[in-house]
Design brief:
- The model has no long low-confidence stretch (mean pLDDT 85).
- This protein has 5 helices and 44 strands.
- The N and C termini lie far apart (160 Å).
- It is rod-shaped, with a radius of gyration of 50 Å.
- Helix content is 5%, strand content 50%.
- It is mainly beta and 577 residues long.
């Protein structure tokens, strides 16, 4: 309180009282709220006085009653009508109870609830979750004030509709208001589809506003009386998120048994590709050193975030054996990564060495589909050894970790992430490999030339091998003559002698044949060897193919090696014996 002396003479406050004009509760009109005395104030001066109120009742309107005296002045002094003693009051009080006659006052309350969505945090005001489903449940409103409330509204500045601007905040009107010192349950249920929630600091703020009734009687209101609400957000389905998001796991395949994991050996879960390298095996080719093989992933996505793809790629040969494709360099999977991102084979986790890792760049814009092509070749994978096992099929399952580092990201619930497998295995031969091919052959007619006591005497015999080679590979060949029981009777040339040579076709710089090679090679045989040959029912060709000095040969599907076996015999026929 400030007491101002506008007079030209000093004054002394003999008594100053602050009185209620109207009654307040148990305190009647005229009740002295506070009083003071004894202050001396200089001419045209002022003094600040603090008055303790204690525990009392203060009316909405009070008056000041003051008595003062002055010692006057030693000389004549002019006092005009505007000269006065003024009292300016302000108060700092702790109010326990208010007595009012309600006349349509505005009441405003505010509160907040925790907005806890697993793996999502919204530290910034611009962060949001856009919903394709969910409900706002106003389960209860309680009015602790001894006044009934009309025009009750609850506004949610962090729940926005339409254009999602601040002015588009959700406002829920509560018809029927709130009863005096009472509550309502199951107040409202609001569909949150197509809304965005801005819950800065992971808290959702709401404000309750109401207008009090108008009544003739005085009501007592405690300072602790409030309008409170029980509010919950339930069944949320996120359509789009822009916030701090933990890494998101995505299975690239169908989880047919619902265990949350993909098994590369389950047909319903794996991407299975027929490769056909088993045809090389059925053609008698073994241990080829194939070059130039590639497996490429065509990945389609509209995720505006980078991700890591972990894959298990297994080749299954026609004998049932399995070979896994591993990574090299940046594509190597660590043991911890394989444990955190498990893929299965017949229910057992695939080891880190049998998995592969690919870093994939996402889209620049949410919802805009981009296609990324990633290639696995001999520089970043074990594909050379993989295809060298001549698998019949390739099986693939994968798991993607979107936004592996976490942090701020924009992502949609209906995102696209698809990985298609494209296998290119040109039969490009490096170094050498074996070919074993068995053909039926009836050579029993040679027995007449070689049977002991025969009238035919063999002076010299040779087998002639004519060839036309359309492959870019030279061939070293031995012939095994096999009897009806599958046992080898004779090998020509024998293992101590040089094999028969078939020249390679001429090639271009890429290793493809441009001109066939044709020729003849021969081997001398004895009468005893002819006798052994005559007992054979098939010939097993044991060949070693070699890419030659270029080190690389590429075979096309119409490249052929044609062999023709004939004989040249010099005999003497004894007549009359």
């Amino acid at each position: 309180m400030t007491i101002s002396n506008d007079l030209p003479v000093p004054i002394t406050i003999d008594q100053l009282e602050i009185q209620n004009i109207e009654a307040v509760g148990q305190y009647p009109a005229g009740h002295v709220v506070a009083q003071t005395s004894g202050q001396t104030i200089a001419p045209r001066g002022s003094q600040v006085v603090s008055l303790p109120l204690g525990q009392t009742g203060v009316a909405a309107n009070v008056r000041t009653v003051a008595f003062a005296s002055s010692p006057g002045s030693s000389s004549p002094t002019r006092i005009v009508a505007s000269d006065a003693i003024r009292v300016d009051m302000s108060a700092q009080t702790e109010i326990e109870q208010i007595l009012i006659r309600p006349t349509g006052e505005s009441i405003d309350e505010g509160d907040r609830i925790a907005f806890d969505v697993p793996d999502i945090s919204m530290p910034d005001a611009s962060d949001y979750v856009e919903l394709s489903g969910g409900r706002l449940e106003i389960e209860q409103l309680t009015n602790e004030i001894d006044i009934s409330m009309n025009a009750v509204q609850i506004s949610f500045p962090g729940i926005r509709t339409g254009a999602f601007a601040v002015q588009d905040s959700l406002v829920v009107t509560i018809p029927g208001g709130l009863p005096r010192s009472g509550s309502r349950t199951n107040v409202a249920s609001v569909d949150l589809t197509d809304t965005r929630i801005y819950a800065t600091g992971d808290e959702l703020v709401y404000n309750i506003s109401a207008t009090s009734e108008t009544a003739p009687d005085i009501r007592s209101i405690s300072v602790t009386d409030r309008i409170t609400g029980s509010v919950a957000v339930t069944g949320l389905v996120a359509r789009e998120v822009f916030a701090d998001v933990a890494p998101v796991d995505v299975n690239l395949g169908t989880d047919s048994n619902g265990d949350g994991l993909l098994d590369v050996m389950i047909d319903a879960e794996a991407d299975v590709t027929q490769l056909g390298l088993d045809e090389l095996s059925s053609a008698g080719i073994s241990n080829p050193q194939l070059a130039g093989a590639e497996i490429s992933f065509e990945i389609s996505t509209d995720i505006a975030a980078d991700f890591v793809l972990y894959g298990a790629i297994v080749g299954v040969s026609d004998d049932g054996s399995n070979t896994y494709l591993g990574g090299l360099g940046a594509n190597v999977v660590s043991a911890s990564e394989s444990q955190d991102n498990p893929l299965l084979a017949n229910g057992t986790p695939v080891s880190a060495t049998d998995m592969i890792r690919l870093n994939v760049a996402g889209s620049n814009t949410v919802g805009k589909i981009v296609r990324r092509n990633l290639t696995l070749d001999e520089s970043n994978s074990t594909i050379t050894e993989f295809v060298g096992e001549l698998p019949e099929t390739i099986r693939f399952v994968g798991r993607a970790i979107v936004h592996p580092e976490g942090g701020k990201v924009r992502i949609r619930e209906d995102f696209l992430l698809d990985a298609g497998l494209n296998v290119s295995i040109p039969v490009a031969i490096r170094e050498s490999f074996n070919i074993n091919k068995e053909v039926d052959a009836d050579l029993s007619g040679l027995s007449d030339l070689s049977e002991p006591g025969s009238s035919v005497e063999v002076n010299r015999a040779e087998l002639l091998l004519d060839y036309t080679n359309g492959m870019p590979l030279g061939v070293e060949l031995r012939m095994q003559f096999v009897d009806e029981f599958g046992s080898t009777i004779l090998t020509l040339p024998n293992t101590e002698s040089a094999a028969l040579s078939v020249g390679a076709g001429a090639t271009d710089g890429n290793g493809f044949t441009t001109l066939e090679s044709a020729g003849r090679t021969s081997i001398d045989v004895t009468a005893d060897q002819l006798q052994s040959i005559s007992r054979s029912s098939s010939i097993r060709l044991d060949m070693t193919a070699n890419a030659g000095s270029s080190g690389l040969g590429r075979i096309r599907t119409d490249d052929k090696l044609e062999l023709s076996l004939s004989g040249n015999f010099d005999v003497t026929i004894n007549i009359g014996q």
